[in-house]
Design goal:
Helices cover 29% and strands 22% of the residues. It has a 7-stranded mixed β-sheet with strand order 8-9-10-1-11-21-12. It is globular and about 75 Å long. It starts with a helix and ends in a 12-residue tail after the last strand.
Length: 542
Amino acid sequence: MNTGRCAAKAALAAGIALAIAAAGCSGDRREARRGGTLVVGEISPYESLNPMVTSDAHARDIYSLLFLSLLDENDDFLTFRPRLAESWEFSPDRLELTFRLRGDVVWSDGTPCTARDVEATFRAQIDTALAWSGRHLKEHITGVSAPDERTVVYRFDHAYPYQLMDANDGPILPRQWLEGKTAEQIRGATVEEIPYNGPFRIGEWVRGQSLSLLPNDRYYEAGKPYLERVVFKIVPDQVNLLTQLRGGEIDCMESIPPMEVEPLGTGDYGLEIFNFPARAYIYIGWNGARAPFDSPAVRRAMTMAINRQLIIDNLYYGLAEECTSPFIRQFWAYNDDIRPLPYDPARAKAILAEQGFTDTDGDGWLDRGGKRFEFELMTNQGNQLRNDIQVMVQEQLREIGVKVDPLILEWTVMLERHKFSDFDAVVTAWRVGTKVDLAPIWSCEARREGGYNRVDYCNPVVDSLNAAATAMLDFEQARPLLLRAQELIYEDQPYTFLYNPPALLALHRRFRGARPDAISMYHNLHEWHIDEGASKGAGNGP
């Protein structure tokens, strides 16, 4: 790395230290009042906000502001706090979980939110025709009953560590809307058609351009949300977003480029930078349903030909760490002993030769059976980091004679192709679920339509280890099984795991009360408010 890069990294580290020190300033002792507009800049539009349809984690952040879940999850990924349910308890044998609901929550149409809504939501969640993406999370729940309007009982086929999390997953939807509709009608509905009970409601949604949220006047917490209006402005270009952030056209931007942390945090823009662990990893997914990526040896060769540390140093200024697992470091089952495959282009080329790839015609490109080793590497437009990864990978694989054709698509188009495994290879990311369970992305069964296993990965040993581990109440007994499962996945290299990034959020200092964390950037958006003593001009300190 050159001296300029080193100096930049030092400045960036100093900037982050300032940002962390300033994080305490997001709170405010003044009494919060209703008023003001927050404009959030977003790169990607939302494919859907119907909770029974979308699998986009980005969209989940929004619909979680419209519909309440039974509980709110804490960022330790193990404990919860009350939300729609004010209390909960297990039976002595842990086969029944009883929730006691609040009595002051109503839907936007004025109907009380009751235990009957929880029952109806569960029936929809397990409906195979509806094919909700989280249906697998309910597989050990044998039934849900409502003894009275405020009591809900979940019954399980056995006791296991994540019963509370599985019961809680997915927002509660209104019975009066769900009942009488076919699966097709539910899936085809827009979010505007569904009665809501969260702190916000949809104001105006111009697809692909902007989404505004307004306060739900029937929300049970009197006076909240404090903001009068929240606008999510879609700007599908990171450079343009940064320009608008500096110019005050937007107030908030998530996933800011690492190189911008120091200048944004210390410049005269009035911004606070939040830096906190993200539950995400960036990866290159190799489509195992397409040759030659159906070969683990070829996939390992690809990884060994890609200089992952150079990508981290050049694009993330060393802030990220190389990823070797589908779990994140904060998880209790994370395997810290997996050593990354070395960057070794010569060995990578030798492995490919063993697989039959040689340069038979002397044109500088490897071929096999008369066909050049050439593939498309897909990602979404507007994300400069991913576009830069494409370029770096293209250059690095050129060195071993593999031709990469970068393919940059609009977000929703790329998401659709990814969903249906219509790609050779893809640069993208997962925001991992908070439950330690490999099944949703890595199981053989998850290759089904609507599943998250989009690279056709299947290792029955991984499935067996994961199934045994997730059935155990004792984490210490389960941990060795999950450690081995992670090792097997890394050996198979269905992904080239690139890095775990930090979450970097910029927010104007006149906004108070923000507590972004690994659960969601905006999980307490209803508590954000404006400091009336601060102006919108640049340079306003806390």
